[in-house]
Amino acid sequence: MKKYNLVFIFAALFACSAFSLTKRPSVFPPSVVMNCPAPESIHYENGLFSAPVTLLGWEGQWVSQKHEKSEVKSFVSTLFFARGGAKEGVLVNCTYLLSSDEEIDLTWEPKNRKHNLVNLIVSIEGYQGWHKESDVAGIQGYECTGAAQECRFTPVRVADN
Question: Which alpha helices (H) appear in the chain, and where do they start and end?
Fold first, then answer.
């Protein structure tokens, strides 16, 4: 009888630990695909342009610096500075043209760190639409100028700026 109880206890402990490992929320899920927000999803409030991000583990928003109110006309480009080829680097910003013919840059900020500058570390490896720019001072840049939804990347982690 004791032998069966011991087996049952180990099986229960193993099941609980396996459950806790598989159900533990991951702060940054590895297989999420992100892109710059579509122009029509960007809204203006209190001097800022922003678009929400609701991807599990990457909740937050794309947000601009303070700016005068204007309509977002179109997506212009996004920039990526490589740290290790296309495999990993910093997504700098997403740029949009306004009806005032000015451009605004939106950067991603996590939900729990609003108004703190962070670097969104991403990978563009395997995604189409990214074009290599000339290497300046040992930093390789890539630019995507297609539609915002075509400028895809995989978020890797957040680093303090």
Answer: 2-23
The encoded tokens of residue 85 equal 């080829």
Single-letter amino acid code for the residue at 65: Q
From CA 57, how far away is CA 33, in angstroms rounded? 12
DSSP-assigned states of every residue in 132-159: EPPPBTTBEEEEE-S-GGGSEEEEEEEE
Q: Are 122 and 80 in contact (CB under 8 A)?
A: yes
- Of 91, 102, 83, residue with least CA distance to 60: 91
Q: How many CB atoms are closer than 10 A to CB 39?
A: 19
Per-residue tokens: 96 = 């949009």
26 vs 9: CA distance, rounded Å: 28
What tens digit of pLDDT does each residue of 39-54 get? 999 999 999 999 999 8
pLDDT in tens, 5-41: 333 332 333 333 332 333 333 344 557 899 999 999 9
Long-range contacts of 131-139 (CB under 8 A, 24+ apart): 139/81, 139/82
End-to-end CA distance of the chain: 60
